[in-house]
């Protein structure tokens, strides 16, 4: 990967609020054109607008989903649990979102959103959502797009992940619960020296392992890759 700068930059928006039964603190990215490119014929402002809308809508959908649960819990607690003779724990539902721009050049941008929700119980849940875009077309990149046409990328990636798992088999589920291969819409993001394949909590490993990640380094897999 070379280092051609993109025509846009990333600003950050923060929204936060705390109430008795619901709290959120969210920071999400907003792409903006550099001033000198605002009226440049080569770049379509609608692409930037559409990307921003997609990210914002996903963030708000996540927040509002937990908010809806918090409203239902508030009603239950107020009308029933608080009046019970049993000593129920009072929860406050929570949402935290932050993000990191892991790659931003060559007309490609990769943004990793970390989303956390707490809805009662022993612990909350953390999710990663990656937003990988071709800024010239506005297309959201798939893992297949990262490889040259005709390359059996699934075999390459599957073999690599299996080798990594075999190095520390005690960290991963086995049998039917273990890794069986990447999916058609496999989650990934791009960083400065490779493509990071990742899986959700509990997907292929116990909770204490965290979010499993496997990096295909550019210097090792460059010959297979499309974006280089």
Description:
This protein has 228 residues and is α+β, with helices and mostly antiparallel strands. 24% of the residues lie in helices and 31% in strands. The chain has 3 helices and 8 strands; from the N terminus they run E-E-H-E-E-E-H-E-E-E-H. It has helices at 45-79, 153-167, 218-221, and strands at residues 8-18, 22-33, 93-105, 108-118, 125-134, 188-191, 194-198, 213-217. A 5-stranded mixed sheet has the order 1-2-3-4-5, with helices on one face. It has a 3-stranded antiparallel sheet with strand order 6-7-8. The longest helix has 35 residues, at 45-79. The chain is flat and about 65 Å long.
Helix content: 10-25%
Q: In angstroms, what is the radius of gyration?
A: 21 Å
Shape: flat
- Span between N and C termini? 5 Å
Structural class: alpha+beta
> Can you summarize the main beta sheet?
5 strands, mixed
Summarize the entry for a quick read.
The protein has 228 residues and is an alpha+beta fold. The chain has helices at residues 45-79, 153-167, 218-221, and strands spanning 8-18, 22-33, 93-105, 108-118, 125-134, 188-191, 194-198, 213-217.
